[in-house]
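Hi L.,

You mentioned the student needs an example of a multi-chain input paired with its predicted structure. This one should do, with 357 residues in total across all chains.
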Amino acid sequence: MHATDAPAEKVSPLALARQFLVIGLISFGGQRQAYLFDAFVRRLHWMGDEDYLEGLALSQALPGPNFMNVAAYCGTRMRGVGAGILGAFLVAVPGAIFISLLSAFFIGSIGDPRVVGALHGVTIGAAALLAVTLYRLARRGLRVPLDGMIAALALALSVVGVPLVVILVGVGGANLWRHRPGRD
Amino acid sequence: MPDPIEIALVFSRLGLLTFGGGLTVLAEMERVVVKEHGWVTDAAYWQSFALGQITPGPGIFMVIPLGWRIGGPTAALVATIAFLLPPTIIGLTAVSLWQRVRELAWPRAIARALAPVALGLVAAGFVSIARVALTDVVSAVALVIAVALLVRLNAVTVVALAGAAGALATMLR
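Structure written out for the whole complex:
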């Protein structure tokens, strides 16, 4: 499956912009980067799993919303820096307009039980999407049992509230020793 | 409305603390905005958070209703730009630099070293979503159904169906 690991440089700018905009319009729930995975990797095969995982890892080491950083990475990887800027912008703008309108007119409406129910349903849907994304990424990203143990360690530290910077530098740094250039 | 410069300073500091994702700063932002400055009530803060969750796009756009509560549309604009601009510039610069060095030995090693850590952190994201999502047996069954549907349908359709089912379930109760 090496073919899917190369970014699809033939993707037209318009098709790419359309995907970003649609994702910006419909990305409800938490961990919204999973929508980028769903579109670009799972459905359209414009990017490979490992390529995506690299972008995800990079985004987590950076400040700012993961969603915008991963979008910038996907755009840059597929069509250069301009597409990266466009991607970060397009996944954010629809939501910004949407929430501004809500702030102006409907700030009290979220007490409505139907809205609360819908929100709960959306959260379940987002959790399902995240579970599927995790499964796919883990299948490609965790090559040996030790990788799985490192992932489990990062998960455990994060759940007990260890600051992210500590996890990235501590666990990531220790793992870097394993992968240091010239070792394999 | 509080001094816009102070709003800009507070939110730009918060924005730069968001390593690993926008909402990692949720607790610190509550401390600063609600407790330290007393700009909004705790209820208004969590209402802003909920608005960020029910709208598309980055959840951290909760700073828009939050700013709006602090001082109307002007404060919302100031807070949002202050919060997002510095990390966005850093992010775009880092991503384009990365594109140039990613084939070199050390960057490749870093990417491989961080990959399992990144997966662990996404799994932690799943744990926190699951804590909110899984309130009873019905919601656990709904999660399993949603995962099964994702084999055939795209994410948007499944999440939209889940939202509609949630609203319907509330009305039937």
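You could point out the following to them. The mean pLDDT of chain B is 90. Chain B touches chain A through 97 residues (CB under 8 Å).

Best wishes,
N.
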